[in-house]
Amino acid sequence: LEKSRAQRIVWLLEELNVDYELKTYKRVNRLAPSELKNVHPTGKSPIITIQAEGKAEPLVLAESGLITEYLVDHFGPHLAPSRYQDGNEGQVQGETEEWMRYRYYMHSAEGSLMAFLMIALVLDFIRSGAPFFIKPITNAIARNIESLYLNPTLESHYGFLEEQIKTAPNGGGYICGSKLTAADIMEEFPLAFGKTSSGFTKQKYPQLWAYVDRLEATESYKRAIQKITDVEGKKKASL
Fold this sequence. Notes:
The protein has helices spanning 7-16, 64-75, 97-129, 135-166, 182-194, 206-216, 219-232, and strands spanning 47-50, 59-62. The chain is mostly helical. The mean pLDDT is 90. The protein has seven helices and two strands, in the order H-E-E-H-H-H-H-H-H.
């Protein structure tokens, strides 16, 4: 789906260096077209189909987190940190810090940060779409939601992530440690979107800002963006 979070799945496929076919769908009034329901009942994006040798029907997967975990399990275990500390295999609290971070960010990217950025997007829609004679009212409501709830919540998230980058294991560089993982691929999209709004600035969060720049400098990311550009005619997909 154009202008969607499916961008991160293209990046993941490029990082995994697997063969794939990219099919895009155009939005209709900002929503996914009805044709997507022919692929998955929710009609949402991203969606992938996997045709394994010897299988009559393809496997259809939806939801960024599930798609990412499935692809990493089968095609890229190097994009997930080791789970257990040596000698603590299978034990409660025997996991490595890198793995615990990995599991957390595989879920929080969509479950926490992206959810609040979607609220910010809806407020922008309210501002831009309201009839002019009620704009003072809708703008006041949007400002109150931002000042009392949304902005403090986003500042808390960005501050936490800034500290996480500073304290990442093994010298850091990425959210789980010194190596790129699928959790970084999940995190990039909401953070890149946050750069365009929501109080995420280089001045306030220099480590986090540099982290996003570092992700977007990877060769697999640049290849993914080029493929999206070739198909959509846009430099980068966004919400």
